[in-house]
Amino acid sequence: MDMATGGGDAHLPPVDPLARLRVAAQAREAAGLRRTLRPRTPDHDGLIDLASNDYLGLSRDERLVEAAVRAAREWGAGSTGSRLVTGTTSLHAELEDRLRAFTGAAGALVLSSGYLANLAAVTALGAGGLVVSDAGNHASIIDGCRLSRARVTVTPHKDVEAVEKALADRDEEHALVVTDAVFSVDGDLAPLRELHEAAVRYGALLLVDEAHSIGVVGERGQGAVHAAGLAGHPSVVMTVTLSKALGSQGGAVLGAPEVMRALVDAGRPFIFDTGLAPSCAGSALAALDIVSDHPELPGRARRHALALAGAAADRGLGAVDPAAAVVPVVLGPPQAALAAAEVFAEHGVRVGCFRPPSVPSGRSCLRLTARANLGSDDLAVIAGALTAVAEMKVNV
C-alpha cells in the first residue's frame, strides 16, 4: 500500500472539497437566493426601520440601556458559565419570576436565545413520542423536531382537524403539539383554543412559541396564550424571546413545574449552554417594567401594523389584516422581492426581504414590521414607498 496516498490512485487529480460550495453559491445567485451581510449604523443608515423585530421601539430606550449598563457593572460582561454551574445569578431568578408573573405561567426558565428555548422545549418534551408541528412553524421549531428523535407529523397550516387525526392515530404514549402563536412571516394567529382542546382531548401537551406575540398581542401585551384564556393551564407550555418586543436578548420556556424540572434535568440546550449575559437580563427586566407601566404600547404597535396593511391593500399589494406587528407583502419570485426592497431603500425605508427557503417557492415577500414608535411622517414616507412598489409590480 502506498502510505502517502492511503492506497488510492496516485494518478488521480486531487479533489477540491470547496468546489461543490462554489457551484451551490452560483446556483443560488442565479435564482436570486444569495444572502448578504450588510452591517448597519446605529441609526439604520438613516432609513426608517421596518425590518427589525423591535416592535415596541425599546431596543434603544435609555431605560433599557442604563439597566444593561448597571447589570454589566455589577455582574460583569458575561454570566461566566452554564446555568447549572455559575451562570445563574439573582438577576436571572428575578427575570424568571417577572416573566412568570407577566404571562400567568406557573414557572419560567431563561436561556440565552429564543432559538435555544425552542430547541430545549421540543427536544425535552417530544423525545420518544409524537410531535405534531404546523407547516408554518419557525426554523427553530423545525430543528427541534429533527433533534428530538420523536416521530414528527407536519400538519397543514392551522389545520386543527389534521392535528386531531394525528393525535388520534398515534401509537406513542405521549405527544406534543407545537405551533407559533403569531407566524413569523405570514403574521397570522394560530387557533390556540381549538388546538388546546384537541391536545387535552388526546392527552398531549401544547407548546406555543410566543416570539412574535409577547409584548404585542393582548390588551396588555401578555401574549396570545394569555389572550386566549389559557394562561397557567398545566398542559400549555410557552416559549418566548426577549429580543423582539422586549428589545433585549435571550429566551425563556414557561410552563408547569414538571416542565421546568424536565428542562433542568434533560434540556441539553439549557444544560450545556452558557447562561444569558447579565446585561441582557437587566435590560429585559427594564422592558417588562415599561410594558407593565405603559399598556398602550402593544395596541399602538398593532394599530400601526393595521395602517401598513391597509396602505398596501389600497395599492393592490394584497396584504391582509395582521394579528400582531408583522405585515407580509407577497410579490412572488425572489427577484421581485429583491427589487421591491431596493425601491423601499431608495425611499428611505428598510424592510425585510424573505425568499426560499424562509418562505415557500413562489411566495417571496417583503416583511414590514410595525413599531409602536412610528410617527405620522414615517407612515407617510412608507405609503410613498408602497406606491412606488405597486407601480413597479407590473414590470417584475
3D architecture notes:
The chain is of the alpha/beta class and 396 residues long. It folds into two domains: 41-59 and 296-393, Aspartate Aminotransferase, domain 1 (Alpha-Beta Complex), CATH 3.90.1150.10; 62-293, 3-Layer(aba) Sandwich (Aspartate Aminotransferase, domain 2), CATH 3.40.640.10. The protein is built from 14 helices and eleven strands. Helix 7 (192-201) links the parallel strand 5 and strand 6. The model has no long low-confidence stretch (mean pLDDT 94). Pathway: Cofactor biosynthesis; biotin biosynthesis.
Task: Summarize the model shown.
This protein is of the alpha/beta class. 42% of the residues lie in helices and 15% in strands.
How many domains in all? 2
Helix content: 40-55%
Secondary structure class reads alpha/beta
Report the span from N to C terminus. 60 Å
Radius of gyration: 23 Å
Largest sheet: 7 strands, mixed
Name of the CATH architecture of the largest domain = 3-Layer(aba) Sandwich
How do the strands line up in the largest sheet?
Answer: 2-8-7-6-5-3-4
* Mass-distribution shape: globular
Cofactor: pyridoxal 5'-phosphate
Family: Belongs to the class-II pyridoxal-phosphate-dependent aminotransferase family. BioF subfamily.
Organism: Sphaerisporangium melleum
Enzyme class: transferase
